[in-house]
Each structure stands twice: as C-alpha cells, then as structure tokens.
From TrEMBL:
UniProt GO MF annotations: FMN binding; oxidoreductase activity
Species the sequence originates in: Colwellia psychrerythraea
Protein name according to UniProt: NADPH-dependent FMN reductase
Gene Ontology CC terms, in alphabetical order: cytosol
Pfam families xref list: FMN_red (PF03358)
Amino acid sequence: MNLLIISASQRTQSQSAKVANYIAETSSQFSETNHIELCKQRLPMWDGEDDSKQDNDSDWLAINSQLQKMDALILITPEWGGTASPLLKNLLMMAQATDIGHKPVLIVSVVNGISGAYPVAELRMNAFSNNKLVAIPDHLIIRNVEDILNTFKKHNQQEDKVITRQDKSIRHRIGYSLHTLLHYSQAMKTLRDSLRGNIYNNEHLYPYGM
C-alpha cells in the first residue's frame, strides 16, 4: 500500500512538517511512503479552469501523479484562526475524483495550544464532496505540538524517561491511526476495483457531490 502525506502549513520548517516527518518514519506497515510539503510547491490559486492548474511552471502534474498512485492519504493542517490551511483547501479543490475518489484519508490537525478541533470539522464538512475522498472515522489532533514528537528514532530506556506521558500517548495514538488507515486502504482498493468493474448507467452525469 502506497501512503502519501501532505503537510499544509504555509511556513517552511513548520510543526506540520515535523509531524509529517515523524509519521513517515513510523509508517513501515505501508510499502511506500512519500511526503509533500505544500509551501515548497508551486501551485496557482485555482480559478476553476483545468488549464490554469499548470500556469507559471506549476508543480500540479507531479503532485497529481502522486495522488493518483497513492492508496491512502494523510492530510496535516495547522489551525489558523479556527480554520484549515488555505493551501490545503486549494489543493483539494484542484484534485479530481477520477484520480483520488474512494481513497481513505486521515485528517491531522496541528496546534501549539489546546484547541485544534475546528480544522477537522471543517475538512469533514466541506472538503471531500467533489473529489470523493473518504475521511476515516479516526482523526488526530496534535496539541502543544512544539513540546512533542521532537525525537524520531527509537528510544532506549534512559531516553524514554525524558518523553512526557502526553508525548508517549500521542505516539501510541499515531500508531493506532496508521494501523487503522492501512486496513481501510486495503479494503477500499477492493472497493475501487469493484466500482471500476461495475459502472452505473450514465454514471458520468454525477462527477460532483450533491
């Protein structure tokens, strides 16, 4: 199973990218893992026209190639003003159901505080209607992010003592979420194969959500 992680902070050297790198290092149950840091990509603010996705030396084709190949997706967004990243929402509007439809996605919200629920609710409500991604029931909110996930490699007993209980808890929860996402990706690959082999009459009339 091919896992794609997209971190969507608008800042370089972000906490979102740190979380993405930690998840990538601990996702060995997937056969391949790739990470796209959106702020380092060249993507236009989409105007609704397919041709504009490739304006100004856009990286859209390379990103879409990875979206097409993936079996599972992790979307990591910071919470700014109670909302998800504009970069991420722009990308999700550009992506098409023919490329990413019926693929499972794990939503991860990152915040240096104790909030973080609003981006999850926003993405669940209005980010997947047209592209037909399927958000799994589990999600992650990484609170007080500057204080956790700062050591990636396996720890010996002495190092474990300096990792807080909160840090250990979120690491274990990340492991559980990856385990769940893997099984969704396996099941939904079978679903996609079934849908491709059983086309509904005039299915082309319904490319978008209702």
